[in-house]
Known about the structure:
The protein is α/β, with parallel strands linked by helices. The chain has 7 helices and 5 strands. About 45% of the residues lie in helices and about 10% in strands.
Amino acid sequence: MPTAELTSQIWNYLVIKDPLRKSDVVFVFGSVDLDVPKKAAELFNKGLSPLILVSGKLGHLTKGSFKKTEAETFADELIKLGVPKNKLLIEKEALHTSQNIKFGMKLLKQKGIKVNRAILVTIPFLSRRCKETFSKLFPNLDLISCPAYTDLEIFLKKRPDTDSIRLQEEIDRLEEYAKREF
């Protein structure tokens, strides 16, 4: 099978985009891609949620790119995009997907915010892991996956080094997460 076709098949498996509905929070997973906070701001500005939570410390890709944590960097972008500071919650200790979820939900609980439905915003190829991990940790929540974008060509332009092998690594991580009961 040609690499482009395999890459497309893996992409289509990893990227989940659900129909949008109003929710209690837009839950944003940190990354290096500033299209993530742009998507979150778009959702907020359309009135799909009264609140945005951003989560993430620094990962291997952001350590050299960001001066602040992923969550703080994304919060700064969200404010530039019209999201009021008082509509943002910032969780800046999480180092991986499971911690993003656990620490983010703990912060929401500490603030007295009840969540029944959440829109999950992340880089596209992490949308399956984010949604499945969230479902495992909080099975009673209504989760809506909304990646920053869904077009593989956009992603490949941003990350020209990405190919089917790199996306296959994400499938391997899904298996690892399942074994660790995330």
